[in-house]
Each structure stands twice: as structure tokens, then as C-alpha cells.
Specification:
By secondary structure, the chain is an alpha/beta fold. Helices cover about 30% and strands about 15% of the residues. It has a single domain, classed as Glycosidases (TIM Barrel). It binds 2-acetamido-2-deoxy-beta-D-glucopyranose (NAG) (3 copies).
Length: about 450
């Protein structure tokens, strides 16, 4: 009996998991009322789903805990796999997951091959990811896209992302899932920003705007400063922003070793009132040289199998890379802005105006009607005000460098391992009242037996 109870108590752990994350006004909060700042790390070991290998997740989450991380960002998941083991490993380490609903290969995102589409099949693919992940308490947010708009004229595809967010928010609410924030992760493109940022939040109907916005920015390199890095400009454009904003990728590696000094700006008095932290790019060391851990010496670039992919071993025990790992860890250890409590915070900022047409920079006028599911990309975009223009965006150099694992995809064939205890864990999360009833009954019976 006691053993059975202990086993059941072990299974109840998911119920006692982390407080959930919600967006309120321009800030993120935990369900127990504290303001939440991401101390995140981009986590995508291979093109496969990194949240399906429990023992790997246990090894990585344990080291991330010593790093001081509270979030991972995952670019690609496979909804048909079993994620219970990994999600509880990260939860046990106090780590939330921010998950791309699409695929970083572009397959399921609205903009693909230059022709924006928000089709029923893409919508259904997004739904499957949401269905699979919504009931993990440590899922903090979903992205409807990553760095898909990279030039001024690409702005005409922005309504497809806003439509995807609108439809996924409506789906989330229709299914009575909790209000997991839904946002977009933007490349730092001078010509597009800040219009894209404002567009994603604009309009009086919040059902049609994003819940948060995030930026992949690599402009703070080495011994830079708030002014020199241009973070002061990012702050100017964020200070009046009505929804949460954070860095969904950061960590320039042009100067080594990395000191991650931008973290002290993001979490300090200049920015912490407007920004909700950052995700540092990235966990694993690979060709792009952004990693803070390695899984062994570089392998033969042509080798495959045994966890080796594109010249790097990507499984096993992670080893911190010095001094970058320690530098990030010591930065985060000193940075703990308190922010405000949810109760003490009343949002006052209203949505920004929808941007006006500016040739080559923003090629739509105002709050254009969003495309419906199945709308043809070209039909929709030609109906928008057209550019007379030559405009082409200028991309910041380093943001496109952070893409080695995103470039290719390998076939996934993992068996969907179903085991008993994860199912019990899932059941307890779905039926907490019934579960607490069982636990109380168990203790009662035990009491009777002892007496
Ligand atoms: C707000 O947008 C949603 C989703 O498009 C729509 O269903 C609703 O009718 C809109 N509300 C108003 C007041 O226009
Ligand atoms: C963004 O900030 C820049 C620099 O201060 C400013 O020139 C620009 O008007 C701002 N744009 C918006 C839309 O807030
Ligand atoms: C980063 O590491 C270098 C080399 O060990 C060290 O000199 C520097 O102080 C560290 N910086 C931070 C911010 O920890």
C-alpha cells in the first residue's frame, strides 16, 4: 500500500509542476503573480524533435539548471511523439518551453517558397502541435513563425502570420486550453523593424493581434554598450509597446569569448520595464560556433549514426564550453529584476497605430483585412496597395548566420513509445480533482490500516 502510494505520489509530480505563464498588458506573469523574465537558451540538437528523448532531456535539463536557465526555445517538434518524459525533466529543472508551431524547415509555416499561404493543412498541423503540448504546465508560449519576413516587400506576407495567430488563439480558446501566449519571432531587419513590430500588435481587436512579439537580435558584440549596440533604439521602439516583447535569439559571437554583457542591459534599469528577457542562441556547439556545450570532439563531417550529424556528436553528456558557459551563468546569477506583481499592475498602453505605406519598407496601408484560411497568397497580396518601389531590406549580418541546424532536415522515424507512468501523469494533469480525491482516499485507507 505504502509503495503504491509512493508510486502514485511520484506520478502526481506533474500536478505540482511549475506555475503557468500568462501575458498581461506588456508583461509576462507566472500564475502565482510574479513577473516573468526569460533566461532562455535555444535548444535544437538536430533537425529532429529534441523533446522526445527522455534520457537526453534529463542530462541537458540538469546542466541547464546549473546555468540558471528558466526557458528553452525549440524550433521543431513532432506532435505524434511522446513528450511526457522530456517535459517533466525540464519542469523538474524549473524550465519552461517556448515552441514553434510550424517547422523551421518552412514546411508548415505560412510563408514558404516566397508565396504566403495559410492553408487548412498548415492550420491543422499547428493544431496538432498545440493539442500535444497545451496540457504541459511548463509550456510558456507558441510561435507562429520564425524569421520568415526578411525584406521590406515581405511585409505583404505579415497578415498571414497575424491570421495564423488569430486562428490559433481562437482554436486555443474554443478548445478551452489555457491562455498560452502566441507570438512571432522576427529577424532583426532594419527596413522592416519597427513597422512589423507595430503591425503585429496594432488594431483595436486584440483577438486579431499577437499575444507577444519577439526579436532575434545579434547587434551587441563583445565589449559593446547600450548605445553602440543599438539596443537604445530597440528600447525606444519597445517603451510604448502594449504586448510583451523579448529577445527570441541573442548572443553575437563575433568577439570571443562571449561575455553576454547584453544580458545586463536587458535585465537592467534601461530595458527591464519594457523587455521580458531573452533566449540566448544556442545550447549545442556546431558549425556556426554559437554553442555553450559540446557532446565530444567534432566528428568526421561525413559520419552518420550514433548521434552524429553534420560533423558533431549530438547526444550524451553535455560538457560546458569555457568560458562562455560560465560567463553566461555568472551574468544571469547577478540579474534578477523583480518587476511588478500581476495584482499591482494595470495595463495602460494602447495598441500602436498600424503602419502607413512606405515604399520598400512597409507595403500595406493600415489595418488591412486579414486573410482567411485557404486564401491564395498571390490573390490576397495583389489586392493590397502595391509598391512602385525598388525597396529591398537590409539584413543585419549575424542574424542570418544563426541558422545551421535550420538549413536541412532529416527523416524522422521514431517509435512513439507509450508507457504507463507518463499516461498516469497525463491523466492526473487532466483530472486534478479526481486525482486529489484518490490521494486523500489513499491516505484515509492507509490510516485505517495502521489503526
Ligand atoms: C475580433 O476578431 C475576431 C476574430 O477575427 C472576430 O471574430 C470578432 O468578431 C472581432 N470583434 C469585433 C468587435 O470586431
Ligand atoms: C523607432 O525608433 C526610432 C529611433 O528612435 C524612431 O526614429 C522611429 O520613429 C521609431 N518608430 C516607431 C514606429 O516607433
Ligand atoms: C568571461 O570570461 C573571460 C575569460 O575567462 C573573463 O576574463 C571575463 O571576465 C568573463 N566575463 C564575464 C562577464 O563573466
Amino acid at each position: 500500500m505504502v509503495i503504491l502510494l509512493l508510486a502514485l505520489l511520484a506520478a502526481v509530480c506533474p500536478v505540482l509542476a511549475l506555475p503557468t505563464i500568462e501575458a498581461k498588458g506588456s508583461k509576462l506573469f507566472t500564475s502565482d503573480g510574479a513577473q516573468f523574465y526569460l533566461k532562455g537558451i535555444a535548444y535544437q540538437l538536430t533537425p529532429d524533435d529534441p523533446l522526445a528523448d527522455t534520457s537526453q532531456c534529463k542530462l541537458d535539463s540538469a546542466l541547464m539548471k546549473t546555468l540558471g536557465a528558466n526557458s528553452i526555445r525549440v524550433y521543431h517538434v513532432e506532435p505524434q511523439l511522446d513528450h511526457d518524459g522530456c517535459m517533466s525533466a525540464f519542469s523538474d529543472a524549473g524550465i519552461y518551453a517556448w515552441i514553434d508551431l510550424g517547422s523551421y524547415t518552412g514546411k508548415n509555416t505560412p510563408l514558404y517558397g516566397g508565396n504566403p499561404q495559410w492553408t487548412k493543412s498548415k492550420y491543422q498541423a499547428y493544431q496538432k502541435v498545440m493539442d500535444t503540448f497545451h496540457d504541459y504546465d511548463n509550456v510558456a508560449g507558441f510561435f507562429v513563425g520564425n524569421e520568415m519576413l526578411t525584406t521590406g516587400p515581405d511585409s505583404k506576407a505579415a497578415p498571414f502570420y497575424k491570421a495564423a495567430a488569430r486562428d490559433m488563439k481562437a482554436y486555443r480558446d474554443k478548445k478551452s486550453y489555457r491562455k498560452i501566449p502566441i507570438g512571432y519571432s522576427a529577424a532583426d531587419i532594419t527596413a522592416l523593424r519597427p513597422n512589423l513590430q507595430n503591425y503585429m500588435a496594432c488594431g483595436s481587436n486584440s483577438s486579431e493581434a499577437l499575444d507577444f512579439y519577439s526579436l532575434n537580435a545579434y547587434s551587441w558584440c563583445g565589449d559593446s554598450s547600450y548605445e553602440q549596440s543599438g539596443y537604445n533604439m530597440l528600447q525606444l521602439n519597445a517603451s510604448d509597446y502594449n504586448i510583451p516583447i523579448f529577445m527570441s535569439e541573442t548572443g553575437c559571437n563575433l568577439v570571443k569569448p562571449r561575455n553576454f554583457d547584453d544580458q545586463s542591459a536587458l535585465f537592467g534599469p534601461d530595458m527591464a520595464d519594457s523587455w521580458s528577457g531573452s533566449v540566448v542562441y544556442e545550447w549545442i556547439e556546431e558549425t556556426n560556433n554559437y554553442g555553450i556545450v559540446s557532446y565530444g570532439a567534432p566528428a568526421d563531417p561525413t559520419a552518420t549514426g550514433d548521434g552524429v550529424y553534420e560533423g558533431y556528436t549530438r547526444t550524451g553528456t553535455p560538457t560546458p564550453i569555457s568560458p562562455d558557459f560560465e560567463n553566461l551563468s555568472s551574468q544571469w546569477a547577478t540579474l534578477s529584476p523583480k518587476g511588478v506583481s500581476a495584482d499591482a499592475y494595470t495595463p495602460t498602453i494602447s495598441p500602436p497605430a498600424c503602419p502607413a505605406f512606405t515604399s520598400g519598407m512597409w507595403e500595406m496601408s493600415g489595418n488591412v483585412p486579414l486573410p482567411t484560411i485557404g486564401a491564395k497568397g498571390t490573390d490576397y497580396t495583389t489586392a493590397l496597395p502595391s509598391a512602385s518601389a525598388d525597396g529591398s531590406g537590409t539584413s543585419t549580418s549575424a542574424s542570418s548566420a544563426a541558422s545551421s541546424t535550420r538549413a536541412s532536415s532529416i527523416a524522422v522515424s521514431r517509435r512513439n513509445m507509450e508507457s504507463f507512468w507518463p499516461k498516469v501523469g497525463k491523466w492526473t494533469r487532466e483530472h486534478p480533482a479526481a486525482w486529489y480525491g484518490l490521494v486523500v482516499a489513499g491516505f484515509f485507507i492507509m490510516g485505517v490500516v495502521v489503526v
